[in-house]
């Protein structure tokens, strides 16, 4: 029997975790406990705990620590509050787990992991070794890696980078590919009719999926960036249906949120969704002609659906990307003309992040390192 904890703080990491959660749930020798916090518990961000529960999982513990503001002070205070609440959680539950999974690079994830260090909790980190120069997530990701005992990366390049960062050998770092791509193989997506019935959005129309998050390094430029994106989407909506998903809880995120809500109210062809959930998001990606934004889903998953992605700005700068990713500045005219150039094209290359059965490989490695009799 192995006692496994999973830290999930947002819709984004939960969607990636899902195949691993299913694999562990179906293994009688795994005692799975899910710790839910962050935007999962925020009604402003869609209260995505309900998605976890509708998928048949239960929260072992719900930890509320997210502040509603998006200023640097609010983010720093949210980090501090999360670390404080998790210090209490680890104090009470440090013996409940043989290993605890942490994924990605969110500030609240980094805070939860930082609080575990004095308690010597064994952390297994997913998606370490990556680089996003336009987001302070880079710092949080590396801090999680430095606090972890085991590492599961998505490419060989990220494994090599992590070896350098940790200044150790390869025996605790495993290249398993991207967990999220396992979703695309295993998850039944909605039909166009099912999607329309659920969301009142007709994907028979030529559609563009838009997911834009704030840049958190040069956060003072977000107002300018948001204006450029809004101008582009406003003009593109004359010819295409624009489907926008709302940004994460990051510094200056409210700037984009308010602008997108305004566009959605003004233009019938612009649809704004708080949170699709994994199945509907991938369904929309599959049937859209193109993606615009600066999200990791454009870097990792879009190539599997043979979609071109217009990646805006520097948020994902430094992250390994395929030939389907077109890098652009936050300039309305560039976004419009490049969109028009790529709307009729289909990507024919491979996905650099794909490997078979990553969840099963991860579980086998966990057994080797942490299973107890």
TrEMBL record:
Residues 23-366 form the UDP-N-acetylglucosamine 2-epimerase domain. One of its GO terms (molecular function) is hydrolase activity, acting on glycosyl bonds. It is an enzyme of class 3 (hydrolase). Its EC number is 3.2.1.183. It comes from the Bacteria. Keywords: Glycosidase, Hydrolase. This is UDP-N-acetylglucosamine 2-epimerase.
């Amino acid at each position: 029997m192995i006692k496994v904890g999973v830290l999930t703080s947002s819709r984004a990491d939960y969607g990636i975790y899902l195949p691993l959660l299913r694999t562990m749930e179906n293994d009688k020798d795994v005692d799975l406990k899910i710790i839910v916090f962050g935007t999962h518990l925020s009604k402003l961000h869609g209260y995505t705990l309900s998605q976890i529960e509708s998928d048949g999982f239960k929260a072992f513990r719900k930890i509320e620590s997210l502040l509603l503001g998006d200023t640097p002070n609010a983010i720093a205070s949210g980090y501090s509050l999360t670390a404080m609440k998790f210090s209490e959680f680890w104090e009470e539950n440090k013996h409940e787990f043989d290993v605890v999974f942490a994924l990605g690079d969110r500030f609240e994830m980094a805070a939860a992991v930082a609080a575990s260090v004095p308690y010597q909790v064994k952390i297994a980190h997913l998606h370490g070794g990556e680089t996003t120069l336009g987001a302070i997530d880079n710092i949080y990701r590396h801090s999680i890696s430095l606090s972890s005992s085991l590492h599961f990366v998505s490419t060989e390049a990220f494994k090599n980078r992590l070896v350098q960062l940790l200044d150790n050998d390869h025996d605790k770092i495993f290249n398993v590919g991207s967990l999220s791509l396992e979703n695309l193989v295993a998850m039944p997506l909605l039909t166009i009719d099912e999607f329309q019935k659920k969301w009142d959005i007709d994907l028979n129309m030529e559609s563009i999926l838009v997911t834009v998050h704030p840049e958190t390094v040069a956060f003072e430029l977000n107002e300018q960036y948001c204006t450029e994106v809004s101008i582009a989407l406003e003009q593109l909506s004359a010819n295409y249906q624009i489907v926008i998903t709302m940004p994460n809880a990051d510094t200056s995120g409210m700037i984009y949120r308010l602008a997108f809500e305004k566009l959605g109210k003004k233009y019938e062809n612009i649809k704004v969704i708080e949170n699709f959930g994994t199945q509907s998001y991938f369904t929309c990606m599959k049937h859209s002609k193109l993606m615009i934004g600066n999200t990791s889903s454009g870097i990792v998953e879009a190539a599997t659906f043979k979609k071109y992605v217009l990646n805006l700005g520097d948020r994902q700068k430094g992250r390994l990307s395929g030939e389907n990713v077109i890098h652009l500045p936050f300039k309305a005219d560039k976004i419009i003309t490049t969109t028009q150039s790529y709307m009729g094209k289909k990507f024919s290359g491979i996905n650099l992040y794909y490997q078979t059965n990553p969840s099963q490989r991860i579980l086998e490695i966990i057994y080797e390192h942490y299973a107890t009799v």
